[in-house]
Amino acid sequence: MSFQRLLGLLTAVALIAAYAIGAGRDSSGRPPSAATVARLAGCAIIETKPSHNGARETVTCKDGRLDVAAYTFDDNGTRDAWVDEERGVFIVAGFNGHGGALVAGDRWVVETTDAEAAERLHMMAGGWAV
After folding, report:
1. Contacts of residue 40, Cβ cutoff 8 Å, sequence gap at least 6
2. Burial of 27 by CB count in 10 Å (0-12 exposed, 13-18 middle, 19+ buried)?
3. What is the tens place of the pLDDT at every residue in 80-99?
4. Amino acid 51: pLDDT
5. Which residues pair with 129 in a beta bridge?
6. How far apart are CA 59 and CA 102, in angstroms?
7. Is residue 120 within 8 Å of 111, Cβ to Cβ?
8. Where on the tree of life does the source sit, at the highest rank (predicted)?
9. The pLDDT of residue 107
10. Helix (H) or strand (E) holding 66
């Protein structure tokens, strides 16, 4: 591998790491926006949706096989209650042959049917996968 290619690779890794760390929260201590989290999952065109079930912010994107919904919450307790409720929905969907994944971090959750998007988000932004 050439030095220039190695330098380019290291720069890309550093930018991804910095972006992922920044996705955890901004300098004010607030959680990231739902749009920021959705972009980390691979979304380009994002649609804002009305929030419900305790979510502070909700955005979705659907592009080809990429189907993502990102939610942010005021605190992790509300996020955990939301995740507990959604687990039941995912179990029923799994029994009916529909796959999906939840990836959660500090006051945010992404719900997707795209396993690659879930894994990419989990690797970049951390959090935990359900």
Report:
1. 19, 20, 23, 120, 121, 124, 125
2. exposed
3. 999 888 877 766 666 666 66
4. 85
5. 103
6. 15
7. no
8. Bacteria
9. 93
10. strand 66-72
Amino acid, res. 25: R
Number of H helices, E strands in the chain: 4, 6
Give the global pTM: 0.70
To 10 degrees, the CA torsion angle through 41, 45, 48, 51? Answer: -20
Q: Are residues 59 and 70 in contact, defined by beta-carbon separation less than 8 angstroms? A: yes
DSSP 8-state secondary structure symbol assigned to residue 29: S
Q: Look at residue 16 in the predicted model and tell me its pLDDT.
A: 39
Q: How far from 51 is each of 58, 68, 70, 77, CA to CA, in Å?
A: 5, 15, 10, 17
With tokens 């550093």, the residue in question is: 14
Strand partners, 64: none
The per-residue pLDDT for range 6-60, each reduced to its tens digit, is 333 333 333 333 344 344 444 457 778 999 988 888 888 899 998 888 899 999 9
Task: Extract the tokens encoding 8.
Answer: 């380019």
